[in-house]
Amino acid sequence: MAPHPPQSRPSTGPDPAAIDTSRRPFVLIWEVTQACELACDHCRADAQPARHPDELTTSEGKRLLDQTREFGPGQLVVLSGGDPLARPDLVELIEYGTSRGLRMTLTPSGTSSLTPETVHRLSDAGVTRLAVSLDGATPSTHDTFRGENGSFEETVRAARAARDAGLPIQINTTVCAQTVDELPALRDLVDELDAVLWSVFFLVPVGRGRILESISPDRAESVMEWLSDVSKDAPFGVKTTEAPFYRRVAIQHRRDASGSPSSDGIGRRLGITAGDGFAFVSHTGELYPSGFLPKSAGSVRDGGLVERYRESELFQSLRDRDALRGKCGVCEYRHVCGGSRSRAYAHTDDPLASDPLCAYVPEGYDGKMPSDQASGD
Ligand code: SF4
């Protein structure tokens, strides 16, 4: 069979600073399947070897992509899993989304399926960025964390194949007690692989991630300061996931450096948090504020994605920074940060509680601390 001609991919999306996150997400993540060959210690999805019988079908998936398009031109879509490569219709879905003007990106697992040939097929289908996970800078540290020998080599090989195909790559890293010492070596590896973005995810204890150990708030603070320094000189971008207080740390850091009490140095755009810039559709079509906040705003299998994102009580409450509780609720940084709503929910069952990983205490605050709010704030 003749190969498909390469899809023409939308080159740019809307200006991120101009996105009104009450109207559309910065990124819509679709968990196309929970199936995966790996058994990573930290897996949010609690991935399984086989596909779930009730996961969205090809035609339901295409309807979801049609709904996603209603957010506006150039909507960014991340196909995640599990391992998206476990779906035989993956290329068809990428081509469909690309033909509808969506910016399709992918987070495959580092398995033997991720061959250079597969990377080229994905690129031809219109993928605009490939995100791969590296949680250790050596085969030993990464493979131990991922529970699969050979995963490091397969991931690095795929990243190099993507680079050689001209496909931008993003490296995702999970930060927890088991991986935090690897960060300096990982920074060098991200550089060596010519990645365009390093996405550093601060562990939220959901799924199998519950068995991992988080770092302390003080350690998180020093990691953030280090990342802020890395971002000044690195040839790649640095972003954090489920740690919006990186914005607070960066503001404080740059303010200290400039000596100006009013300079925030990173612009005024609101922080992106669960339900406020992020939306997540599960493998069975449930709409969640994020993959780490498994509270459903309802099924979008038959429609309603845009309405639920904009109007559901759950999503609207997450966007109201003045409704936050505890120290996040009075923090002067709540509009640029807002804390991880997912981590608050994982620790307290209350998505509006304080983020327990943030060490900052607003001046004059004398209410409950996150360590006191284990069962509601
Ligand atoms: S207290 Fe909450 S809003 Fe303030 S910086 Fe920390 S996480 Fe962000």
UniProtKB/TrEMBL annotation:
Alphabetical UniProt keywords: 4Fe-4S, Iron, Iron-sulfur, Metal-binding, S-adenosyl-L-methionine
**Radical SAM core domain sequence ranges:** 22-233
Pfam family of this protein, just one? Radical_SAM
Give the matching InterPro entries: Aldolase_TIM, Elp3/MiaA/NifB-like_rSAM, PqqE-like, Radical_SAM_PqqE_MftC-like, rSAM, rSAM_sf
Q: Which cofactor does it need?
A: [4Fe-4S] cluster
Give the GO molecular function terms: 4 iron, 4 sulfur cluster binding; catalytic activity; metal ion binding
* The keyword DNA-binding is annotated on this UniProt entry: no
Q: Provide the residue span(s) of the region labelled Disordered.
A: 1-20
Write down the superkingdom of origin: Archaea
> Has keyword Iron-sulfur?
yes
**PANTHER family named among the record's database cross-references:** RADICAL SAM DOMAIN PROTEIN, TUNGSTEN-CONTAINING ALDEHYDE FERREDOXIN OXIDOREDUCTASE COFACTOR MODIFYING PROTEIN
Q: What is this protein called?
A: TIGR04053 family radical SAM/SPASM domain-containing protein
Organism of derivation:
Haloferax litoreum
